[in-house]
Amino acid sequence: MDNISHWLAINLTTALGGALTAFVATLLLTPLVIQFTRKHGLVAKPSTERWHKQPTALFGGVAIVAGATLAALIFLPDKANFIGIGVGSLFVFVVGLYDDRCAMRPAHKFVAQLVAACFFVAFFYGQVKTPTLVWLIPFAIVWIIGITNAFNLLDNMDGLSAGVAALVAVLMAAHAAFVGDTGVAFGALIVAGAAGAFLVYNFNPARIFMGDCGSMFLGYSLACLTLMGHDGLLSGNLFTALLMPTSALATPLFDTIFVSCVRMLNARPISQGGRDHTSHRLVLLGLSERRAVCLLYGITLWFGLIALWGSTVKNNLATIAISGMSGVALVVFGLFLAEVQTYSEEEYEAAKAKWHGEKMVISRVFQHKRRFVEAIMDFCLICACLIAAFLLRFEDELPNQARTIGIALPYAIACQMTAFYAMGLYRGLWRYATISDIGTIVRGVLAGTFAAYVLIAFWDHFHPNDPINIARTVLIIYAVLLLLGTAGVRIGLKALRYHFALKWRDGQKRVLIVGAGDAGELAVREMYNNQALQLQPVGFLDDDPTKLQASIHGVRVLGPRSRLLDVIDRMQVDEVVIAMPSIGNGVVQEIIDACDNHGISYREVRGVIL
Q1: Which of 179, 160, 190, 212 is nearest to 25 (CA)?
Q2: What are the residue ranges of CATH 3.40.50.720 in the chain?
Q3: What pLDDT does 296 receive?
Q4: Residue closest to 300 by CA, chosen among 251, 361, 355
Q5: DSSP state string for 255-270
Q6: I need a surface site. Which of 26, 103, 145, 289 has the fewest CB within 10 A?
Q7: Is 56 helix (H, G, I), strand (E, B) or coil?
Q8: Is the separation of the CB atoms in 557 and 547 below 8 Å?
Q9: 44 SS3 class
Q10: Does position 386 have pLDDT exceeding 70, yes or no?
Q11: What is the helix, strand, coil percentage profile of the chain, to 5?
Q12: Which band of pLDDT confidence, cut at 50, 70 and 90, is reported for residue 85?
């Protein structure tokens, strides 16, 4: 961090001047844009494909671009280096402005983004003198178009795109300051200032939307800034070139990849708008819009801090391990969000028929997508856990173990994946995971670790002059980490379902369960597992005094049966579930009569086996 302190000592005044100018200018201009658009009827009206419920002013991107441009003209050093990004960002702004007004076709918008990307690449990468770096040009074009569209797609809920852009820009500025890249740091701080000021008016409840003109400008600017750094693609070090951009931009990349995959699996055009983004699904799960957006802010911050940490410690292997584990956790989160129903039953059935009707290889992959994703996650976990085991064992001496890791890792991957398959790990339905399933994971980890140890021992036997000499403690740490990781991934998915099942959602009935026994426990579990029932348990009643104030799956026992009517009124119960299959019919009839007299619906649970 001494690098950042030294950089701030020299550039603090100018850096703050650029950020504050962009912030104040955007803060003052946005109300004027709101007033102008409302006066001329340029507002976004609510629709079934959009999330907002009130007419909201458009063209907020005008204020963002004006504020950022003013600050850039005054404070950016070496302005000649920013001609490419300046002209390109203004071009996508104009294209977005036209799209907001006249609704361009996706293909036409893509061509415009391609032109803007090519302009920046032609200007900036014209300095490439090494023939081996020429391949970076198409990669840079794809990167710019991808990030531009990612922010465009991310602009689907109040404050999301602007807040993520501000966070990403601040993280990029900190990274650029650390490596001494003054131009990129200033540019990122200017973007952060403009996006942060707009967030004041765009956070829920939003008074204005940035529109495509704003989201495309922010995405394009950030994409280009990531390529301009000293340790960017021109450095030739692909790892450092990709670490900061992909980590800091994890949220828009995750949302874009997630939505693209889900729409493709459901036979919907990727370019078609809808309420199926990660933010929408979080709200459907019971979070408020603000909490959903803040959760995605947290993901952005976490991955950005990983990248900053990796840049400061300059330990690529450790960064790979932490990034890999975090990436697997993000995939699990995506699998959970994909279960949220956002399309109609007709669309689901049509998509299922399409994939089952096709005979292509890709169709087969999609039909078994859950197993395929499980295997990919396990592969990443094996790599990350082995590297982490070496890191915990050798700490600062980890770079000296690079050869050992390079030889041991392929053996570990081959043995562990084979052991997992042989032990039946990929046959389990993890929605119903129990202790016996954890036993399968334990056997798979132990078998794979032992097999890897045996193969490495054979290597040492046949290469006496060049042995690996892997420390046994490394394999022990690796086995423990892998056990926690593989079990955590699968149980974590179930834990997410359980956690969000506790959230209250619109349309749910509040249910009181009479009987805190096995049948009552099964009833609560079914309510949590089967969201189609739209039932939310609020409490139990049971005459057993030892169960009073006890909790089953987070639902408390509120008292005896005699308090039925009192609890119904106090807890605003909509329905009563009678879960006492072993109790005489007379007691059950008393409860039914009480519900009828009170106008409360009821249902009986007689047990699973009839």
Answers
A1: 190
A2: 509-604
A3: 95
A4: 251
A5: HHHHHHHHHHHTT--T
A6: 103
A7: strand
A8: yes
A9: strand
A10: yes
A11: 75, 5, 20
A12: very high
> How is domain 509-604 classified at the architecture level of CATH?
3-Layer(aba) Sandwich (3.40)
Token duo for residue 571: 């807890």
Q: How far apart are CA 536 and CA 440, in angstroms?
A: 33
- Distance CA(245)–CA(306), nearest Å, equals 11
DSSP-assigned letters across all residues of 558-599: EE-GGGHHHHHHHTT-SEEEE--TTS-HHHHHHHHHHHHHHT
- Non-local CB neighbours of 296 within 8 Å, separated by 6+ positions: 160, 164, 251, 255, 278, 279, 282
State the amino acid at position 157 in one-letter form.
Answer: M
| Exposure class string for 99-133: b at 16+ Cβ within 10 A, else e | bbeeebeeeebeebbeebbbbbbebbbeeeeeeee
pTM: 0.82
State how far the Cα of 168 lies from the Cα of 251, in Å rounded to an integer: 10
**CA distances, 124 to each of 128, 233, 264 (Å):** 9, 11, 35
Find out whether 387 and 317 touch, Cβ atoms under 8 Å: yes
Q: Please give the span between the terminal C-alpha atoms of the chain, in angstroms, as a whole number.
A: 68
Supply 267's token pair. 């036979």
User: Which residue has tokens 């909790």?
Assistant: 551
Q: Give the number of other Cβ atoms within 10 Å of residue 135's Cβ.
A: 10
* Alpha helix stretches (DSSP H) within 395-471: 402-422, 435-462
**509 within 8 A of 574, measured Cβ to Cβ:** yes
Q: pLDDT tens-digit profile of 276-329?
A: 889 989 988 888 899 999 999 999 999 999 988 887 777 777 788 888 889 989
Given this model, what pLDDT does residue 588 score? 86
The torsion region of residue 514 among left (phi > 0), alpha (psi -120 to 50) and beta comes to: beta
> Quick one: pLDDT at residue 121?
86
Q: Write the DSSP assignment of 329-367 as a string of letters.
A: HHHHHHHHHHTS--S-HHHHHHHHHHHHH--SHHHHHHH
**Matching residue, tokens 């597992």:** 529
In this structure, how many other beta carbons lie within 10 angstroms of the beta carbon of residue 60? 30
Question: In the structure encoding, which two tokens stand for residue 330, read together?
Answer: 């993000």
Helix axes 250-265, 289-313, angle to 10 degrees: 120
DSSP state at residue 502: T
- The winner for highest mean pLDDT among 152-161, 175-184, 194-203 is 194-203
User: 349, exposed or middle or buried, with CB in 10 Å at 0-12, 13-18, 19+?
Assistant: exposed
DSSP 167: H
**Axis-axis angle for helices 182-202, 211-228 (nearest 10):** 160
pLDDT tens-place string over residues 524-571: 888 887 777 888 899 999 988 888 888 888 889 999 988 989 999 998
Q: Which tokens sit at 103?
A: 């609704």
Q: Per-residue DSSP letters for 457-518? A: HHHHHH-TTS-----HHHHHHHHHHHHHHHHHHHHHHHHHHHHHHTS--TTPEEEEEE--SH
* Per-residue confidence band for 88, with pLDDT thresholds at 50, 70 and 90: very high
Residue 406: both structure tokens together:
């390079």
pLDDT band for position 363 (50/70/90)? very low
CA angle 293, 50, 287 (to 5 degrees): 30
Could you give the CA distance from residue 72 to residue 261 in angstroms, rounded to a whole number?
A: 37
Q: Beta-carbon neighbour count of residue 38 at 10 Å?
A: 16
Strand (E) or helix (H) holding 511: strand 509-514
